[in-house]
């Protein structure tokens, strides 16, 4: 299995109300991809970090293998969610992908 972890910071100009709406839409959009994209096993989006966090949203996703992750990156359903719900509202993105050793 392969893990795909992303941390985003939202744009500073979002109001508190806008930030809540954006977080909800990111979570719903990304979590809805399970069952739609081959090789995508699980998606969890965390939007409620502690005050010690310096990220606003975390994606924790699991794939069957690295090939499935590569196909996910260009899958139309994923690209749609990323272009509609994520990219317009984020100012930074950090990613780490790794293989889960059993």
Structure explained in plain terms:
The protein has 102 residues and is an alpha+beta fold. It has one domain: 2-Layer Sandwich (Alpha-Beta Plaits). 35% of the residues lie in helices and 32% in strands. The protein is built from 3 helices and 4 strands; from the N terminus they run E-H-E-E-H-H-E. A 4-stranded antiparallel sheet has the order 2-3-1-4. Helix 1 packs antiparallel against helix 3 (76-86). The longest helix is centred in the N-terminal third of the chain and has 16 residues, at 16-31. The model has no long low-confidence stretch (mean pLDDT 97).
Q: Could you tell me the radius of gyration in angstroms? A: 14 Å
Using DSSP, what is the number of strands? 4
Major sheet description: 4 strands, antiparallel
CATH topology category name? Alpha-Beta Plaits
CATH-scheme architecture: 2-Layer Sandwich
Biggest sheet: strand arrangement: 2-3-1-4
CATH class: Alpha Beta
Which structural class do you get from the secondary structure elements? alpha+beta
Percent of residues in helices: 25-40%
**Residue share in β-strands:** 25-35%
Distance between the termini: 9 Å
